[in-house]
Amino acid sequence: MSELPSGRGAEVGRRIGVGLMYGLWRPRVLGAWRMPPTGPAILAVNHSHNIDGPMVMGVSPRPTHFLIKKEAFVGPLDPFLTGIGQVKVDRSVADRGAITRALDVLKAGGVLGIFPEGTRGEGDFASLRAGLAYFAVRSGAPVVPVAVLGSSGKPGRLIKGLPPLRSRVDVVFGDPFEAGDGSGRRTRKALDEATERIQKQLSAHLENARRLTGR
């Protein structure tokens, strides 16, 4: 039987994230009130910086369990990430254990965090994988789009892939939406349609977030 990722651990992770992110950068959080205060929810986050996960984990109004690639669980990070309620996923196979744990988070009324592009890239939601649609349709949980807009293109970065220290990083939460068509169908066609629906919503949110922040 799969063990439910720790909700208490995710709250500890949120507090650690708050301290780290506000200590190293200057997060500006917009629209956090849009996050459903209770019940299951899926945060769909664009991914262009290494700090995106910890940043959203820290500024989210609720503890979040992110699906994180197993390659990140190395050495002491393995028990740490597991202890703060994060979900290890093997992207090279259909990781049934990770899928079950993620669905259990939603079934328990928790918040699941997903990078729907699957990997770090341009962060523009241009290429979505079907995983997000599967979790949204299967669980019925609303999807909350989240845009993280940093300043990675500017000089002064201490570490490649990270924004300059003390620079502003904007985190913009969008309106929750239903990914499915209401029929509850989980066929390949239904998932493809849901993925298309999600992509349109996320791209529109990102465009709005850029306009709102001037990024």
UniProtKB/TrEMBL annotation:
SMART domains reported in the protein's UniProt record: PlsC
Keyword Iron applies: no
Pfam families associated with the record: Acyltransferase
Keywords: Acyltransferase, Transferase
GO function terms (MF aspect): 1-acylglycerol-3-phosphate O-acyltransferase activity
Gene Ontology cellular-component terms listed: plasma membrane
One GO biological process term: phosphatidic acid biosynthetic process
Ranges where the Phospholipid/glycerol acyltransferase domain occurs: 41-151
Descriptive protein name: 1-acyl-sn-glycerol-3-phosphate acyltransferase
